[in-house]
Amino acid sequence: MDDTHDTSFIVDEVSNITKEAIEATIGSQSYQQAKINTWTSNIVEAILNSLTKLNKPFKYIVSCVIMQKNGAGLHTASSCFWDNTTDGSCTVRWENKTMYAIVSVFGLSI
Amino acid sequence: MNNFIVNRSSHPFNSHEVKQILEQIVCPAINRQTDYDSLKCIQLSKDLSQIIKDAMKLLNYDRYKYVIQVVLGQCHNENLMMTCRCLWDIQQDNYVSYVYSNEKIFCAVTVFGLFYY
Question: Keyword Transferase on this protein (chain A) (predicted)?
């Protein structure tokens, strides 16, 4: 009987939640300076709400970077000091013709 | 059966202390780069996150888990927006964010400290 399903960080599940949130917010949009603030907030809040509904004993950190496509390079890296057996992370990269979005979700068990 | 539950940290996360450490690590590392080189920056972002993680461990906060995120990019007249939201314990957990840039490279570092009960 596998009861770790309810208390472990499942990367695929979180990845799907993240992709849906990104698609719903900026899926069909082009980069607009005025809206970028609202978009990042909406993506992050939507993901956090969906994660809360999973009802798992986790603390979550959701971070979103949206960048205009202009030829510049961007690198992100993260390192974590946590419990490898219970905690996990998921990073989703998304792009369209005018912008890049990188969303990272970290889940730490309590 | 061991049921010892800890609710409060005896040494809470001090943002000011962590921010000073970030300044000391990030500024020299970025200034050492003469130009934006994508291969070097790949390694630099990974190295920075490891160095900062090790520095956080030396601070000896008891029962804290850390997540360090480093975003490094080329300054190319671009616009970038970074947002984060967290679901955590507001009394125990905290974060520190530090951004540094010169003419060629910018670097945004965020360190999250979460208490483990």
Answer: no
Is residue B27 very low, low, confident or very high in pLDDT (cuts 50, 70, 90)?
very high
Of A52, A71, A78, which has the smallest distance from its Cβ to B67's Cβ? A78
- Chain B positions touching A52 (Cβ under 8 A) are 87
* Chain B contact set for A31 (CB, 8 A): 79
pTM of the model: 0.87
Q: Is the pLDDT of residue B75 over 80?
A: yes
Q: Write the pLDDT tens digit of every residue in A27-46.
A: 889 999 899 999 999 999 99
Query: B116 and A110: CB-CB below 8 Å?
Result: yes
Quote the CA–CA distance of A62 and A45 in Å, as a whole number.
9
Q: Which residue in B36, B41, B78 is closest to A67 by CB distance? A: B78
Say which amino acid occupies B60: N
User: What is the Cα–Cα distance from B87 to A54, expressed in whole angstroms?
Assistant: 13
Which of A86, A77, A92, A102 has the alpha carbon at shortest distance from A17?
A92
Task: For each of the domains in chain A, give its residue range(s) and CATH number, in order of start.
Answer: 11-109 (3.30.1140.40)
